[in-house]
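Reviewer 2 asked us to include a model.

Predict the structure of this chain.
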Amino acid sequence: MRSNEANHETLEEAVRQLPSYAPPPEVWANIEQALEIMTLERPLHEAIGQLPAYRPPAHLWAAIEAGLAAEPAHRPGRMRALRWASAAAAVLLLMAYFLRPTPDSQLKLSYIRETADAPAQGLYHNDWDADEASLQQLAEQYSKDPVAKQQPEYSSILAEWQDLNDAKAEVVSFMERYGKDGQIIRQLAEIERERSALARQMAIQI
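Predicted model (structure tokens):
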């Protein structure tokens, strides 16, 4: 009995001597952002959960697979932007099929618009083309710069820039056709961040 008590006291003493750890502030910021996103998207998820079950025709999956298979297998560095665009196309295509009106369905969806803080509202009203002319001018200057052409990553940077431009154009086209969905907006913001980082890299090498 005394042995068990001694072991328990030893364990408590060891726990008290453990160094304290405080997570960095960005951890809490990421958690808060994730919770905010979950709150904003809850009405959409609830509405989707009430949709009647349909089995999409085989040609719908064939079209999605054909679009995904058309992606080039090279230049993996920033191809996730194009994968986002293809995935978004698949999701929107399925949603368009599932949400189509049917004669035997009386389901009505109610959309709830929540008031968001200024940063979130600014995200939806962002002018994505405000600096487009300057960025394209920088890319053109980089492509013609003799010093930049001597860099080993010259070709890959230009290829990645074109990939990101194509991904942005595709996502913007989705938004024009289907509206500014929160997930698509975040993907476009990530593409813009990568384009800005790549533009800075080009500017340094000129």
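Residues 103-125 have pLDDT under 50 and may be disordered. Residues 2-205 form one domain. We have added this to the supplementary material.
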